[in-house]
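User: Just a sanity check before I run the rest of the batch. Below are the structure tokens for the first item. I only need the designed sequence back.
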């Protein structure tokens, strides 16, 4: 998010304040320990090491601008992948297809008679002859709109209501004015429902006071 990889597999219960504090401390931790950083009289920055080097060094001395350069080097550039894979798991590895499983094939459903959306479309070669693909196209980095809807809301928007076959997207309409006209022509709501403010849960002390009253 915002060019930084986010680990979204951490959940904190609503009233677990200790875990929330640990999570906030982890997210707000500085790149270096501030209690081991100091500035000497001539303006240079001295940093005390957590463990001494083999040669006995316990402190590192920097010029102010040099110290800022060291800190700037710790900031990853936007949209930079912070997780690196090597060996057969590398992106261009020849054996990666044998190690990483493919997504399940959900295109094997039969269409109902006359369903235009689920009819197979054969690919044509430059010479005009039809050809069927022999290998699956590689998965792109960004998920499609249909994949995101299925992942978040568990709704397959490309599933035909009649035959449960796979539909294909013919066009994507982006201008909101055109989308509004199409929805109004079909008799569908063209405006999003109003958003109500979130209602906070009452504190246990307040509930006890109401019960006593």
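Assistant: Here's the designed sequence for the first item:
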């Amino acid at each position: 998010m915002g060019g930084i990889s986010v680990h979204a597999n951490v959940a904190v219960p609503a009233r677990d304040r200790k875990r929330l504090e640990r999570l906030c401390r982890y997210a707000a931790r500085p790149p270096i320990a501030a209690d081991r950083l100091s500035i000497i009289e001539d303006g240079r920055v001295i940093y005390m090491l957590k463990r001494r080097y083999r040669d006995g060094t316990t402190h590192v001395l920097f010029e102010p601008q040099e110290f800022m350069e060291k800190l700037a080097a710790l900031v990853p550039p936007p949209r930079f992948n912070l997780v690196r894979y090597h060996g057969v798991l590398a992106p261009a590895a020849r054996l990666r297809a044998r190690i990483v499983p493919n997504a399940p094939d959900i295109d094997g459903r039969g269409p109902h008679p006359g369903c235009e959306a689920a009819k197979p479309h054969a690919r044509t070669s430059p010479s005009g002859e039809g050809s069927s693909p022999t290998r699956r196209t590689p998965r792109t980095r960004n998920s499609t709109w249909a994949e995101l809807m299925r992942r978040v809301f568990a709704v397959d928007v490309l599933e035909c209501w009649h035959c449960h076959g796979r539909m294909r997207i013919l066009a994507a309409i982006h201008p909101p004015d055109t989308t509004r006209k199409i929805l109004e022509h079909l008799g569908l709501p063209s405006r999003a429902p109003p958003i109500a403010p979130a209602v906070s849960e009452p504190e246990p002390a307040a509930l006890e006071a109401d019960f006593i009253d």
